Recover the amino acids of this structure.
């Protein structure tokens, strides 16, 4: 298979049948790549978690790029023309949202959808829908549709994780076009979601690594254990 793109933590390969194979490597990064390590077994763990969440979305009728598990650390996906926007849904204040607005971490929010321009050189700046449309990244109608999709994904994930003792504080997805349909793409995992223990508030996600609070895979394994039960 031909390597199409090597990102910070994933590699994308062209598959002979027109699909792509997305491989989770054992890399872990934070601070837009400023912090980087290799943690053995991370790729396999994320692939298992990602499989559960995407199968969940597919079962609820959400259009996604996910096809099936391909190997221990990779999955098969539809080839998607990615819109260069990161879509973030927030249920609780955390991370950059707290820093940006001076809000205490943990404040309950009505689900908020934010768009960020995917551009490492610009450090993925926040972008409003008007500017995104003006710059031609998507039309107003497409952005409204993306917002609806993101809120639907949020409701599904929030309800399921809550039933397993996990609060979904926020998450990031990417979306793109396949046959003129907008699909949810990229991954859904503790690398792209903030998962908090519902009782203690402890992080079960990449914040463990961001803040040097121990082995992040302990949190990742706990997420997998709970959503698999």
């Amino acid at each position: 298979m031909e390597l199409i793109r090597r990102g910070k933590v994933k590699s994308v390969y062209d598959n002979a049948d027109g699909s792509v194979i997305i491989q989770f490597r054992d890399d872990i990064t934070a601070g837009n790549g400023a912090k980087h390590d290799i943690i053995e077994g991370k790729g396999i763990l994320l692939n298992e978690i990602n499989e559960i969440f995407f199968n969940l979305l597919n079962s609820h009728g959400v259009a996604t790029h996910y096809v099936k598990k391909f190997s221990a650390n990779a999955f098969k996906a539809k080839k998607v023309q990615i819109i260069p926007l990161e879509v973030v849904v927030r249920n609780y204040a955390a991370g950059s949202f707290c820093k940006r607005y001076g809000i205490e971490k943990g404040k309950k929010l009505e689900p908020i959808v934010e768009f960020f321009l995917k551009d490492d050189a610009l450090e993925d700046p926040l972008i409003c829908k008007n500017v995104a449309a003006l710059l031609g990244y998507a039309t107003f109608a497409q952005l409204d549709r993306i917002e609806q999709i993101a809120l639907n994904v949020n409701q599904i994930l929030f309800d399921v994780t809550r039933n397993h003792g996990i609060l979904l504080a926020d998450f990031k997805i990417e979306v793109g076009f396949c046959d003129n349909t907008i699909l949810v793409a990229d991954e859904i995992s503790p690398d792209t979601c903030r998962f908090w223990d519902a009782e203690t508030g402890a992080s079960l996600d990449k914040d463990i690594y961001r803040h040097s609070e121990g082995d992040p895979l302990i949190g990742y394994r706990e997420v997998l254990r709970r959503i698999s039960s």
Observations:
- The chain has two domains: 2-78, 81-216.
